[in-house]
Amino acid sequence: MKPFNKQANVKPSHTTTTPITMYYDDACVICSTEAKNMQSRNPTGIRLIPVDVGIEELNKAGFSREDAMTYLCVQDGAGQWYTHMEAVRQLYKTAGIKHANWLYLPVIKQAGDFVYPFIARNRYRFPDWLVVMLYGEAVKNECQDGGCKLPISERLKNK
Q1: Predicted confidence (pLDDT) at residue 61 exceeds the cutoff of 60
Q2: Is residue 27 within 8 Å of 88, Cβ to Cβ?
Q3: What is the pTM of this model?
Q4: Angstrom distance (rounded) from CA 125 to CA 5
């Protein structure tokens, strides 16, 4: 089983093999909004699969449902798995985010690796006003499409 409590031991190649598959928590407004935003930037290069739909593949790779629901999991076209902040880096690179290479710079990389687990574990605790401030209309659209399955008080009960 892969150690999920630590950053995946993956050397960044600064290139990705497309398509990549992003497994995400579809009950999380932040996760769903970010997933759809990334896919809209590269529709043929990024496949989106909710964790519960892809749980069999994740289990085969050694990831528990709890860990996969907490930390981003990405698999590239060559079958290599990325988790935590390294998964974010691969996703942003594939999506064509303008300054994605900056995420590999030493200080930024270390800061991201340090902060990511805290943010991932506490994403349901972010107040709605902060999520709307960060994502704006995209969150409102996600909520209208049924992505906001639970209010914050209910989300916290399930965590």
Answers
A1: yes
A2: no
A3: 0.73
A4: 20
Is the model's pLDDT at 8 over the cut of 50?
A: no
Lowest average pLDDT, out of 52-61, 89-98, 136-145, goes to 136-145
SS3 per residue for the chain: CCCCCCCCCCCCCCCCCCCEEEEECCCCHHHHHHHHHHHHHCCCCEEEEECCCCHHHHHHCCCCHHHHHHCCEEECCCCCEEEHHHHHHHHHHHHCCCCHHHHHCHHHHHHHHHHHHHHHHHHHHCCHHHHHHHHCHHHHHHHHCCCCCCCHHHHHHCC
- Decide the pairing of beta strands 20-24 and 73-75: antiparallel
